[in-house]
Amino acid sequence: MSFCSFFGGEVFKDHFKPGIYVCSKCDHRLFSSHSKYEHSSPWPAFTETIQEDSVSKHEERPGAYKVRCGKCGNGLGHEFVNDGPTKGLSRF
């Protein structure tokens, strides 16, 4: 899955240091750097969340889901179905 920011200028696209990505509003743990992968879009992309309830999703249109923080509802971007690595990584 790939996640995109509403405001552009994403500074974490090429950031691959070990760590945990958290919600910018409530510090809820969202993604591990181990699940991050290089992607052609200008935004960071991850294959899985830290916990099953780290994010919530609802379908906006076929193949596109709005993704929000599972704790406070902060908008995180979108998940696009069939977008991302296909070998050796789990998808949620």
Automatic annotation (TrEMBL):
Task: Say what the protein does.
Answer: Methionine-sulfoxide reductase that specifically reduces methionine (R)-sulfoxide back to methionine. While in many cases, methionine oxidation is the result of random oxidation following oxidative stress, methionine oxidation is also a post-translational modification that takes place on specific residue. Acts as a regulator of actin assembly by reducing methionine (R)-sulfoxide mediated by MICALs (MICAL1, MICAL2 or MICAL3) on actin, thereby promoting filament repolymerization. Plays a role in innate immunity by reducing oxidized actin, leading to actin repolymerization in macrophages.
UniProt catalytic activity: L-methionyl-[protein] + [thioredoxin]-disulfide + H2O = L-methionyl-(R)-S-oxide-[protein] + [thioredoxin]-dithiol; [thioredoxin]-disulfide + L-methionine + H2O = L-methionine (R)-S-oxide + [thioredoxin]-dithiol
| GO MF | L-methionine-(R)-S-oxide reductase activity; metal ion binding; peptide-methionine (R)-S-oxide reductase activity
Identify this protein by name. Methionine sulfoxide reductase B1
Cofactor(s) recorded in Swiss-Prot or TrEMBL: Zn(2+)
Species of origin reads Seriola lalandi dorsalis
List keywords of the entry alphabetically. Cytoplasm, Cytoskeleton, Immunity, Innate immunity, Metal-binding, Nucleus, Oxidoreductase, Selenocysteine, Zinc
Indicate the segments forming the MsrB domain, all copies.
1-92
